[in-house]
Specification:
With about 60 residues, the protein is an alpha+beta fold. The chain is built from one helix and three strands. It has one domain: YegP-like (Double Stranded RNA Binding Domain, 2-Layer Sandwich), CATH 3.30.160. Helix content is about 25%, strand content about 25%. The N and C termini lie far apart (about 35 Å). It comes from Arthrobacter gallicola.
Length: about 60
């Protein structure tokens, strides 16, 4: 099963998103609460478009 993004409302009424793996495990979540669902969707699209970004090891 493929992974999926979920958009949900937090306790404060804001919108957040999380990425779940095919097995249902959460592998990433937004640290920011968005005021609108449309803004959360833009956050998802930003993550999707930048997913091919390089890895920088800061250790």
């Amino acid at each position: 099963m493929a992974g999926k993004f979920e958009i949900y409302q937090d306790k404060a009424g804001g919108f957040r998103f999380r990425l779940k793996a095919g097995n249902g495990e959460v592998i990433a979540s937004s640290s920011e609460s968005y005021k609108s669902k449309a803004s959360a969707l833009k956050g998802v699209e930003s993550v999707r478009s930048n997913a091919g970004a390089a890895i920088t090891d800061l250790t």
